[in-house]
Design brief:
Two copies of one chain form a homodimer.
Chain A lengths: L16 H17 L5 H7 L5 H13 L3 E3 L7 E3 L17 E9 L15 E6 H4 L8 E4 L15 E5 L8 E6 L2 E8 L7 E3 L15 E10 L3
Parallel strand pairs in A: 3-5
Antiparallel strand pairs in A: 1-2, 3-4, 5-6, 6-10, 7-8, 7-10, 8-9
Helix pairs in contact in A: 1-3, 2-3
The first copy, chain A, binds a DNA duplex (30 and 30 nucleotides) through α3.
Amino acid sequence: MDTCSPKQVNTMKDLTTRQQEILTFIEHYEWRNGYWPSIREIQERFNFKSTNAVMGHLRALERKEVIERIPGQARTFRINHPDAPEMNEIPEDATEVVDIPVMGDIAAGYPDRVEPAGEIGRLQVDIANAGYSSRRRSFALQVRGDSMVDAEIYEGDMVIIEPRDPYDGDIVAALIDGETTLKRYMKKGNEPPYLKAENKFYPELYPINELTVQGVAKAVVRSL
Amino acid sequence: MDTCSPKQVNTMKDLTTRQQEILTFIEHYEWRNGYWPSIREIQERFNFKSTNAVMGHLRALERKEVIERIPGQARTFRINHPDAPEMNEIPEDATEVVDIPVMGDIAAGYPDRVEPAGEIGRLQVDIANAGYSSRRRSFALQVRGDSMVDAEIYEGDMVIIEPRDPYDGDIVAALIDGETTLKRYMKKGNEPPYLKAENKFYPELYPINELTVQGVAKAVVRSL
DNA sequence: CTTGACAATGGACACTTGTTCACCTAAACA
DNA sequence: TGTTTAGGTGAACAAGTGTCCATTGTCAAG
């Protein structure tokens, strides 16, 4: 990809005591309330006199890639759990197989508009083999079309999509001209992002007006 | 106001098409993003020209007790899922056993400050027997003291607490004078709420300064 | 015909909340 | 000794966001 380190520098785990306290409070707050705390609520919990104390810790946690945030949006945290199965209802005896909903094929339109109950099936995934990090919010789409054949993704494959913002080089499910397709997301520096098909017969550039990335492909499952 | 019954008029289930769409979008948004949408994000999704269109629907959903909101707070929804067996009717087929963390005994102080990892044990609950609605955020506390003996809750019992705002008559885990105890939450009309012990040797009224309700007791489990 | 529930527009207001700038203290380090 | 890093104060700004008012229209029930 690129020579100079993209994003794996931080050890991801050496938090200071204070940072760990902040993180624990945030997680616990969400666990109790169902939504995330505001900066000032964190401030009050720790008796900080300034919101900036919280900001410093949040920036540190972001730098260490422990949390993600959406700039300017209220109460929007995302915890990057180090593939810890802990929190949720994953029993200890469970195998490494999770099942996730299949929400439709990849040209079905907005997954936003597909109800969770409207799934068309379920897919069992071995997370040890697929490199799939067990988390909620993930879903699967069945591939239609051949825009990614050069990336060894073929029609009929099941692609596991994790809804999140893409990084450069990620394969994403994106909405273009009213249709959802699988493309590689390219963003270099400050230039506007573009999408690239992994098929030499397809044009490399796609219009980015109204680009909607529905999620990042995390794994491909092909039934044989 | 109203001449008759306080709040069980709405059948809780007859939503209009639009209201159902709004609710579905909110649920689905949270499922995808991990946090709740803002009013204006809902507005944009449905191409409303005014945020007030959303407000109307949210008010309707609140009135029908399908959702709960914290006034003035951004992105703070709570969905009252109808699939939750509400203490009274028990799904006949279910013999599902869920296990939930035991966070400490009921005089341990703020569960807020207990880490999820700091649990002291786990409790297996048969939801068919306990009427317990499987949901995250619930936890268990072990009863110390005899303030609720008249409600057949005795020392050593495990009380399953669901963190939420209480209604009149709910048995709650509440913080009084630095100690967490189990009491019945009483609120009549517009009068300030008070707490009542279910033990005739205890005073009926408790100071409500700094009242912190940690959650509502949903079930009691007693090992024999 | 009137009433009321439902749905939506348009504009405005005010609180909530994320963000930033300047500045400070203490410990670790080379 | 100077520098860096973690942690924090204080004040202010601006965008995000919930809320409210007045108004319009539709449609079914009384």
